[in-house]
Write a structure and sequence with these properties.
The chain is mainly beta. It has one domain: Sandwich (Immunoglobulin-like). Helices cover about 10% and strands about 30% of the residues. It has a 5-stranded antiparallel sheet, with no helix packed on it. Strands 6-3-8 form a 3-stranded antiparallel sheet, with no helix packed on it. A hairpin with a 6-residue loop joins strand 4 and strand 5. The longest helix has 14 residues. The chain starts with a helix and ends with a strand. About 15% of the residues are buried.
Length: about 160
Protein backbone atom coordinates (compact mmCIF):
# COMPACT_ATOMS: atom_id res chain seq x y z
CA UNK A 1 0.00 0.00 0.00
CA UNK A 2 2.90 2.33 0.76
CA UNK A 3 4.34 1.68 -2.72
CA UNK A 4 0.98 2.58 -4.26
CA UNK A 5 0.90 6.03 -2.56
CA UNK A 6 4.40 6.90 -3.74
CA UNK A 7 3.51 5.80 -7.28
CA UNK A 8 0.48 8.13 -7.32
CA UNK A 9 2.58 11.06 -6.05
CA UNK A 10 5.20 10.49 -8.78
CA UNK A 11 2.55 10.30 -11.50
CA UNK A 12 0.86 13.50 -10.23
CA UNK A 13 4.21 15.28 -10.17
CA UNK A 14 4.95 14.25 -13.76
CA UNK A 15 1.52 15.36 -14.96
CA UNK A 16 1.98 18.80 -13.37
CA UNK A 17 5.36 19.28 -14.96
CA UNK A 18 7.29 18.53 -11.83
CA UNK A 19 6.17 21.76 -10.16
CA UNK A 20 4.71 22.07 -6.72
CA UNK A 21 1.05 23.06 -6.54
CA UNK A 22 0.56 26.65 -5.30
CA UNK A 23 -2.60 28.53 -4.36
CA UNK A 24 -3.53 31.45 -6.60
CA UNK A 25 -4.20 34.95 -5.17
CA UNK A 26 -5.73 38.17 -6.39
CA UNK A 27 -6.15 41.51 -4.62
CA UNK A 28 -7.82 44.86 -4.97
CA UNK A 29 -8.20 48.07 -2.98
CA UNK A 30 -11.13 50.12 -1.76
CA UNK A 31 -11.46 53.72 -0.59
CA UNK A 32 -12.47 54.73 2.91
CA UNK A 33 -14.12 58.16 3.05
CA UNK A 34 -15.91 60.45 5.47
CA UNK A 35 -17.21 63.99 5.33
CA UNK A 36 -16.67 66.02 8.47
CA UNK A 37 -19.28 68.73 8.85
CA UNK A 38 -18.87 71.83 10.95
CA UNK A 39 -20.50 71.43 14.31
CA UNK A 40 -20.41 73.00 17.75
CA UNK A 41 -21.57 71.97 21.20
CA UNK A 42 -22.11 74.48 24.00
CA UNK A 43 -22.62 74.21 27.77
CA UNK A 44 -22.76 76.88 30.46
CA UNK A 45 -22.59 77.16 34.23
CA UNK A 46 -25.06 79.19 36.27
CA UNK A 47 -24.15 82.70 37.40
CA UNK A 48 -24.99 83.02 41.10
CA UNK A 49 -24.42 86.50 42.52
CA UNK A 50 -25.32 85.48 46.07
CA UNK A 51 -26.53 88.17 48.48
CA UNK A 52 -26.89 91.72 47.16
CA UNK A 53 -26.70 94.76 49.44
CA UNK A 54 -27.60 97.95 47.54
CA UNK A 55 -25.62 100.12 49.94
CA UNK A 56 -22.33 98.34 49.22
CA UNK A 57 -20.16 98.30 46.08
CA UNK A 58 -21.13 96.51 42.87
CA UNK A 59 -21.76 92.80 43.24
CA UNK A 60 -19.66 90.78 40.78
CA UNK A 61 -19.38 87.12 39.89
CA UNK A 62 -18.60 84.90 36.91
CA UNK A 63 -20.01 82.07 34.84
CA UNK A 64 -18.35 79.98 32.17
CA UNK A 65 -19.40 78.92 28.70
CA UNK A 66 -17.66 75.92 27.17
CA UNK A 67 -17.74 75.58 23.39
CA UNK A 68 -16.41 72.63 21.42
CA UNK A 69 -16.42 73.12 17.65
CA UNK A 70 -14.93 71.31 14.71
CA UNK A 71 -11.25 72.20 14.45
CA UNK A 72 -10.68 75.35 12.38
CA UNK A 73 -14.29 76.56 12.53
CA UNK A 74 -15.02 80.24 13.15
CA UNK A 75 -17.73 80.87 15.71
CA UNK A 76 -19.47 83.64 17.65
CA UNK A 77 -21.00 83.34 21.13
CA UNK A 78 -24.01 85.53 21.81
CA UNK A 79 -26.02 86.11 24.99
CA UNK A 80 -29.62 87.26 24.69
CA UNK A 81 -31.38 89.85 26.86
CA UNK A 82 -33.02 87.31 29.15
CA UNK A 83 -36.71 86.75 29.84
CA UNK A 84 -37.74 89.90 31.75
CA UNK A 85 -40.09 92.14 29.82
CA UNK A 86 -38.28 95.30 28.79
CA UNK A 87 -34.78 93.90 29.31
CA UNK A 88 -32.09 94.55 26.70
CA UNK A 89 -28.61 93.13 26.20
CA UNK A 90 -27.20 96.29 27.78
CA UNK A 91 -29.66 96.37 30.70
CA UNK A 92 -30.61 92.86 31.69
CA UNK A 93 -33.08 92.36 34.51
CA UNK A 94 -33.75 89.68 37.09
CA UNK A 95 -37.29 89.51 38.43
CA UNK A 96 -38.63 88.62 41.85
CA UNK A 97 -41.76 86.54 41.16
CA UNK A 98 -43.45 87.67 44.39
CA UNK A 99 -43.00 91.44 44.23
CA UNK A 100 -42.40 91.57 40.44
CA UNK A 101 -39.59 94.07 41.16
CA UNK A 102 -36.71 94.08 38.71
CA UNK A 103 -33.00 94.05 39.57
CA UNK A 104 -30.71 95.32 36.80
CA UNK A 105 -27.46 93.52 35.99
CA UNK A 106 -24.95 93.33 33.15
CA UNK A 107 -22.86 90.66 31.46
CA UNK A 108 -19.41 91.41 30.06
CA UNK A 109 -16.80 89.57 28.00
CA UNK A 110 -13.80 91.13 29.79
CA UNK A 111 -12.61 91.03 33.38
CA UNK A 112 -12.64 94.85 33.60
CA UNK A 113 -16.38 94.67 32.91
CA UNK A 114 -16.26 97.27 30.16
CA UNK A 115 -17.22 95.25 27.05
CA UNK A 116 -20.92 94.35 27.05
CA UNK A 117 -21.69 90.81 25.89
CA UNK A 118 -24.65 90.91 23.52
CA UNK A 119 -26.26 88.80 20.82
CA UNK A 120 -25.51 90.56 17.52
CA UNK A 121 -22.88 88.66 15.52
CA UNK A 122 -19.86 90.81 14.60
CA UNK A 123 -21.05 93.60 16.90
CA UNK A 124 -21.17 92.53 20.54
CA UNK A 125 -20.64 88.77 20.55
CA UNK A 126 -17.42 86.96 21.40
CA UNK A 127 -15.72 85.85 18.18
CA UNK A 128 -13.30 82.93 17.85
CA UNK A 129 -11.44 82.86 14.52
CA UNK A 130 -10.33 79.24 14.53
CA UNK A 131 -11.63 76.60 16.92
CA UNK A 132 -9.08 74.22 18.42
CA UNK A 133 -11.33 71.16 18.14
CA UNK A 134 -11.21 70.79 21.93
CA UNK A 135 -13.36 72.37 24.67
CA UNK A 136 -12.73 76.13 24.86
CA UNK A 137 -13.83 77.91 28.05
CA UNK A 138 -15.08 81.51 27.89
CA UNK A 139 -15.74 83.50 31.06
CA UNK A 140 -18.85 85.63 31.50
CA UNK A 141 -18.24 88.51 33.92
CA UNK A 142 -21.46 89.57 35.67
CA UNK A 143 -22.20 92.68 37.68
CA UNK A 144 -25.16 94.02 39.68
CA UNK A 145 -24.64 97.77 40.05
CA UNK A 146 -24.85 99.25 43.51
CA UNK A 147 -27.73 101.46 44.66
CA UNK A 148 -30.77 99.43 43.53
CA UNK A 149 -33.23 99.53 46.44
CA UNK A 150 -35.75 96.86 45.51
CA UNK A 151 -37.96 94.57 47.58
CA UNK A 152 -36.10 91.80 49.41
CA UNK A 153 -36.61 88.48 47.62
CA UNK A 154 -35.15 85.91 45.27
CA UNK A 155 -34.43 87.37 41.85
CA UNK A 156 -33.64 85.36 38.72
CA UNK A 157 -33.38 85.49 34.96
CA UNK A 158 -32.62 83.01 32.19
CA UNK A 159 -30.05 83.79 29.50
CA UNK A 160 -29.89 81.92 26.22
CA UNK A 161 -26.40 81.28 24.83
CA UNK A 162 -26.26 81.08 21.04
CA UNK A 163 -23.23 79.81 19.14
CA UNK A 164 -23.21 80.83 15.49
CA UNK A 165 -20.74 78.98 13.26
Amino acid sequence: MRFHKVKIAVIASLLLGGQAVQAATDDTTFQVTATVTESCNVTATDLAFGNYDPSLANTDNISTITVTCTKGSDYDIGLNEGIASGATVTTRQMIDPVSTDLLNYSLFSDSGRTTNWGNTVSTDTVHVASALGTPEVHTVFGRIPTGQYVTAGSYSDTITVTVTY
